[in-house]
Design goal:
Length: 423
């Protein structure tokens, strides 16, 4: 009997070895890229969670990272609903004055305080605004639940070792995630049961689409909203914090920014009017500052795609069907394209042609999967800079260490002291 058992095991080993061999050696004309193999808790896993030491490309991202991306109808739906609520039309028609008011209110508050930890302060500001005005009506000031604190803990433990054991960082992260999903699901069910609670926001559109989109249900929608909120929480706060760090270290850039934005104010017929969409679109040098910060920050460590056919990359053949990660830091920090790539130099954008930019500047992805929140992110950063340089002086008083792990990390924080110019 034991011989039969051994035979079954042997056949199973041969079968799965054959499958792995076929996967590693597909029938193609060419040479496959080298792949490192390791156990589930060693090898590249340890490379991935090991901290980076600078703004340079994280060691793991320099080699490879494979994940599965949203495909087909789910992706198309997610993009369409995000564009409706975060896209240029919504920003122009209703959100711009609200964004300026949010920024003005927070900067005025920070100016009455001591040094402010920018990453945390901006993350809370953006999260509370997005959750209230766009996604599901969450009012941070009048809520018992401080949801931004949950997101802070989740972001801080994002790269923790995945041990789901009580007491571990990962376990606490999963508990915060579970709590967030419950709050979102409860809000969803409340609106389903009481239409008077509806606000015409992101959540309401998802409710309207429940019957015509088969993949939507009361469990999927909270997950979708959780992802949208996390994306805005982390990417915008990291990029804007890095921009403020760079500006605090480059007074000549602040001088040029200030000149551009004071010119905007002087051209207004009504001096105290709100920022107009046309004014935002006219911010030439500001856009260079935003682009340069995005180039260095790389909010996403990579862009994931699936090969639709065999293609060649520097002598290697990528087979059809493989999941491929394009490491954006490897592109945007390439010294062959950007001289001194880790140097903050907004003026470099004056000399870059459109073809070079389109092929080497991809902070929001590209093509049909270009990030639906790209304009939202750039508008918040640009508006923040507008209010900042026209109304405040600022000085970095603590921090400055930045690394990539593989997302941006600020060590002990970037602490900024704000002072109103009219004081």
């Amino acid at each position: 009997m034991w011989m039969v058992g051994l035979l079954v095991v042997a056949l199973a080993v041969i079968y799965y070895t054959h499958l792995i061999s076929k996967w590693r050696n597909p029938r193609i004309d060419g040479v496959l890229p080298q792949v490192l193999w390791a156990g589930p808790s060693s090898g590249e896993t340890l490379q991935f969670i090991s901290p980076g030491r600078s703004l340079d490309i994280h060691p793991f991202v320099k080699k490879r990272m494979q994940k599965v991306s949203a495909i087909g109808e789910v992706h198309r739906y997610t993009r369409s609903i995000a564009l409706k609520h975060f896209g240029a039309e919504s920003l122009r028609e209703s959100l711009l004055p609200k964004i300026e008011n949010m920024i003005s209110t927070n900067l005025a508050k920070w100016a009455t305080q001591g040094p402010v930890d920018m990453k945390q302060a901006i993350a809370v500001m953006v999260f509370n605004f997005t959750a209230k005005e766009i996604v599901f009506g969450y009012d941070a000031e009048n809520s018992k639940e401080k949801l931004s604190e949950n997101y802070t803990r989740i972001a801080d433990s994002f790269l923790s070792f995945p041990l789901k054991i009580p007491g571990t960082i990962f376990y606490k992260c999963m508990q915060d995630h579970k709590k967030m999903k419950k709050i979102l699901k409860d809000t969803l069910i409340e609106r389903l049961n009481d239409p008077s609670k509806r606000r015409g926001d992101f959540l309401d559109q998802a409710i309207d689409d429940l019957e015509r989109k088969k993949f939507l249900n009361v469990d999927f929608i909270p997950q979708l909203i959780f992802g949208i909120l996390f994306a805005s929480y982390e990417s915008i706060s990291s990029t804007l914090t890095l921009a403020i760090k760079f500006l605090s270290e480059n007074p000549q850039v602040v001088e040029k920014l200030t000149a551009e934005h004071e010119t905007i104010l002087k051209k207004r017929e009504t001096p105290n009017s709100s920022l107009a969409w046309e004014e935002y679109r006219s911010m030439t040098f500001t856009q260079m500052v935003v682009n340069e910060t995005l180039r260095i920050s790389n909010p996403s460590p990579g862009i994931i795609r699936r090969a639709l056919k065999d293609f060649q990359v520097k002598g290697y053949t990528i087979p059809s069907g493989w999941t491929v990660l394009l490491a954006t830091p490897a592109v945007q920090l390439n010294p062959e394209t950007f001289k001194d790539p880790l140097t903050f130099d907004p003026c470099r954008w004056k000399d870059l042609d459109q073809e070079t930019i389109s092929k080497n500047f991809i902070p929001f992805g590209g093509g049909t999967r270009h990030c639906a929140g790209a304009e939202f992110s750039k508008l918040i950063i640009s508006t923040f800079l507008h209010v900042l340089v026209t109304k405040y002086r600022f000085t970095k008083v603590k921090g400055g260490c930045v690394s990539r792990n593989p997302i941006i990390s600020f060590g002990d924080g970037i602490h900024i002291k704000f002072t109103a110019k009219d004081e």
